Amino acid sequence: MAETMSKNEMKRLAKMEKKAQEKAEKDAKKKLEAATSSGGKLVTEKEELDPSKYFENRNKALDEAEAAGINMYPHKFDVEMNLPDFIAKFSKIDDGSHQEGVSVSVAGRVMGKRQQGSKIVFYTVNGSGCKVQIVAQIRQYHHV
């Protein structure tokens, strides 16, 4: 005697097969992405896992930045005002607003970083006994 499957059982099996196929496609896509490095060069798994390659890639990136005139590790950072002066000068501005064309460099220790989605980052900076929260939005980012 042959057993017949119910409609629900057939639907469940079809759904499981579809999920397995989607997972296999997703895994193949991940493997392809992992096999390509920046620049689209194919990298084998053995090269990717070799710690000396990480060091070589990092040194290559630093050399390219240096050739482009970018100092990745500057010796000095010019500070225009300290945090207490910054707070005194800009405390009258309403929360959430910003002033166009104003650029100020301050120094302090980043004590916290919280990300809100992929486009907004909140930094908490401490310095000279004061604390400031900075909101960084990707659309207002200007590389200097």
Verbal overview:
The structure is a single chain. The protein contains four helices and three strands. It is elongated and about 85 Å long. The longest helix has 29 residues, at 7-35. The chain has two domains: 7-67; 83-94 and 104-140, no CATH class. The chain is of the alpha+beta class and 144 residues long.
Give me the side-by-side strand order of the main sheet. 1-2-3
- The average pLDDT value, as a whole number, equals 81
| Sheet having the most strands | 3 strands, antiparallel
Report the sheet-strand fraction: 15-25%
Helical fraction: 40-55%
Q: What oligomeric assembly is this protein in? A: single chain
Structural domain tally? 2
**What is the rounded distance between the termini?**
78 Å
Q: How are helices and strands ordered from N to C?
A: HHHHEEE
The helix-and-strand class reads alpha+beta
Principal-axes geometry comes out as elongated
What is the tally of beta strands? 3
So how many helices? 4
Pick out the low-confidence regions.
none
Radius of gyration: 26 Å
